[in-house]
């Protein structure tokens, strides 16, 4: 079971605050922590912990954050031979987490701006040998499009996690086999404004018409919607025992979903498996500490049955 990941790495600088500050307001009493982040790296580590053989394409700077990233991937068993060392500093994300677990994130892309089509071309053999290619969108559009095209040309199943969301070029839509937006990202992909008035099922159908593949809209505590050629179905949520921090839950879901698909599970069962991973992740503070192992997920699945 092989998974190729094209996406981001960044250092996450997290502040847990009593409440998010308003414009011009200073809030004291916060707790600071730092750690590894970036959607591509998170997804790669999560997939490796679930037993996949994972290769990663991203870009980091020649700095302490970049060196820490390479040590993380070595420790977690993620293949990072193709990771680009850029001229710019490693991406940094500033994360504010409220007591409810909700988060707000600001990003300085840095090295990721240097991830281009040439880097993807050097990664083509890894894409071709994978069971599934996972692409996320904290990287330049050029790299997203090149990765999806490489997946399609090599016959590898492509999964786009469209976060952070932006409208996609028309040429990208037919290159996507599986699309996994959340409720906020779905209308952005379609270029809709806030008053679009469409429900989640209508959004799922509209996105499926664009790709011709499978669309999974994640809805947090409401579970997920799955749109296929047979229609739209609902997958119930796996309830978290507690919600501590939602940061990384989407990456955990995406990675577990990709692993389950690579194992040959039907889409609905794969979404159920991914929902358990997401529920585990929100119950633990920090992203990397919260990404589950296969044993942890099996224990959760067993306790719910």
Quick recap of the structure?
Residues 3-293 form the Carbohydrate kinase PfkB domain. By secondary structure, this protein is α/β, with parallel strands linked by helices. The protein is built from 10 helices and 15 strands.
How would the blueprint of this fold be written?
Layout: E1 2-6, E2 10-16, E3 31-37, H1 39-49, E4 53-57, E5 59-61, H2 64-76, E6 78-79, E7 84-86, E8 91-97, E9 103-108, H3 117-122, H4 124-129, E10 132-136, H5 141-154, E11 157-161, E12 178-179, H6 185-189, H7 200-211, E13 214-218, E14 224-228, E15 231-235, H8 249-262, H9 267-282, H10 294-304
Parallel strand pairs: 1-4, 1-10, 2-8, 4-6, 5-7, 10-11, 11-12, 12-13
Antiparallel strand pairs: 2-3, 8-9, 13-14, 14-15
Helix pairs in contact: 1-8, 8-9, 9-10
Structure description:
One of its GO terms (molecular function) is ribokinase activity. ATP binds at residues 182, 218-223, 250-251. With 305 residues, this protein is α/β, with parallel strands linked by helices. 35% of the residues lie in helices and 24% in strands. A nine-stranded mixed β-sheet has the order 6-4-1-10-11-12-13-14-15, with helices on both faces. Strands 3-2-8-9 form a four-stranded mixed β-sheet. It has a two-stranded parallel sheet with strand order 5-7. A hairpin with a 5-residue loop joins strand 8 and strand 9. Helix 1 packs across helix 8 (249-262), helix 8 (249-262) packs antiparallel against helix 9 and helix 9 crosses helix 10 (294-304). The chain is globular and about 50 Å long. The mean pLDDT is 92.
């Amino acid at each position: 079971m092989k998974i190729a990941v094209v996406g981001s790495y960044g250092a996450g600088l997290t502040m847990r605050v009593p409440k998010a500050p308003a414009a011009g307001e200073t809030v004291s009493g916060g707790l600071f922590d730092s750690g590894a982040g970036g959607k591509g790296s998170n997804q790669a580590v999560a997939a490796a912990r679930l037993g996949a053989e994972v290769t990663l394409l991203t870009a980091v700077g020649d700095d302490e954050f970049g060196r820490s990233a390479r040590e993380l991937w070595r420790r977690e068993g993620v293949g990072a031979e193709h990771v680009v060392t850029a001229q710019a500093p490693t991406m940094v994300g500033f994360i504010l987490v409220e007591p409810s677990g909700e988060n707000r994130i600001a990003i300085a892309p840095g090295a990721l701006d240097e991830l281009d089509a040439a880097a993807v071309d050097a990664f083509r053999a890894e894409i071709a040998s994978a069971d599934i290619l996972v692409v996320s969108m904290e990287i330049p559009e050029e790299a997203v499009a090149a990765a999806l095209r490489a997946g399609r040309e090599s016959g590898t199943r492509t999964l786009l996690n469209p976060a952070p969301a932006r409208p996609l070029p028309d040429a990208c839509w037919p290159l996507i086999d599986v699309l996994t937006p959340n409720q906020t990202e779905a209308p952005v992909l379609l270029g809709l404004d806030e008053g679009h008035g469409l429900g989640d099922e209508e959004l799922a159908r509209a996105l499926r018409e664009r790709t011709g593949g499978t669309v999974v809209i994640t809805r947090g505590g409401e579970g997920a919607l799955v749109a296929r050629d047979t229609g739209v179905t609902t997958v119930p949520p796996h309830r978290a025992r507690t919600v501590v921090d939602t940061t990384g839950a989407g990456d955990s879901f995406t990675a577990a979903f990709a692993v389950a698909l690579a194992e040959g599970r039907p889409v609905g069962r794969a979404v159920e498996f991914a929902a358990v991973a997401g529920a585990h992740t929100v119950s633990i503070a920090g992203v990397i500490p919260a990404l589950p192992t296969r044993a942890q997920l099996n224990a959760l699945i067993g306790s719910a049955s």
